[in-house]
Amino acid sequence: MKFRRVRIGDRLVYERHDSEWVDAPELAPLGPTPFSSSYEISVDDAARAQGATACLPFQPLSFRDFMLYEQHNIRASRGLVERFHPIQHRVTSAWESATGKTFPLFRPNALFYRQPMYYMSNHVTFVPSTTPISAPGYSSALDFELELGFALARPLRNATPQEAVQAIGAFVVLNDLSARDVQRAEMSSGFGPQKAKHFASSLSETAVTAEGLLDRIDAITGTVAINGTVISEVTSAGMQWTLGEMLAHASASETLRPGELFGTGTLPGGSGMELGYWLQPGDHLTLTLDGIGTIEHGIVA
Question: Which residues 6+ apart lie within 8 Å of 57 measured at CB?
């Protein structure tokens, strides 16, 4: 079932989509929200003050972003070197051409192959689709990342993968906005991304309940479009770990709560750094996952 929230006066109310959008006041896809209505209205007010016309489908309780796709890491590493390190780019390109192999440092850290990896990001800077986006003041390399997001509907602790996947309540399109020119130094610090990631992320206006997607979780397709032209097609196929394995790992000796949000990491071909396209003021970005939803942003100075 597809659902969304709409603003009616000083309330945010759920709607579900059958053949058309209908009121669904009884809907609680992630269980009771821990946020007060006044807080959620203040978040919506702030987004509308920026120019948003849509609402977040839910307010995330936290945000863990995983990295599940080896090919994204390899392609993004190449793109980063090409943009910011031209001499290294020439050397690594020559090495790959001569050997026919992937340059070793472009592959993920060895931990990627031993266990699911994630970082904790900023759950209070999510904005809805339609919000105008600008690069943070300390960056001139704004990028997008098209991901599959999902949120829990019930708590988990020390869960098995089978138990964990059954706790997923909803899926959503997720955009992990990134300031690439400060990201590498932060990653090298040993503390993970900070200002490179925490300034903003976004969600599609619509989400879908889990029962409609779990049976095709490895076959979700989507697109990246800039100014109305599709520049990349993506698929969810090729995850290093299953969603159940991700959540089981996160729940080890740690209680996960309903409303907590998780990302798969960028689907291969779902970031500008992979594609050699860097967002500029005046661009219109459209990220779509078929059957789930769309994120749209105008890029402003």
Answer: 3, 4, 5, 170, 172, 203, 204, 205, 206, 207, 293
CA-CA-CA-CA torsion sign (208, 214, 220, 225): positive
How big, in percent rounded to 5, are the helix, strand and coil portions of the chain?
30, 35, 40
Q: pLDDT tier at 225 (50, 70, 90 boundaries)?
A: very high
Q: What are the pLDDT digits (tens) for 178-194?
A: 999 998 889 888 888 99
Residue 267 contacts residue 71 (beta carbons within 8 Å): no
What confidence score (pLDDT) does residue 279 get? 98
- CA 143 to CA 135: how far, in whole Å? 9
3-class secondary structure, 210: helix
CATH number at residue 92: 3.90.850.10
Provide CB contacts within 8 A for 13, sequence distance 6+: 5, 6, 23, 25
DSSP for residue 161: H
Domain extent at residue 257: 2-298
Q: Which neighbouring-strand residues pair with 296? A: 286
Gap between the Cα atoms of 153 and 254, Å rounded:
16
Q: pTM of the prediction?
A: 0.96
Asked if 186 contacts 203 with a C-beta cutoff of 8 angstroms, the reply is no
Where is average pLDDT lowest: 22-31, 54-63, 75-84? 22-31
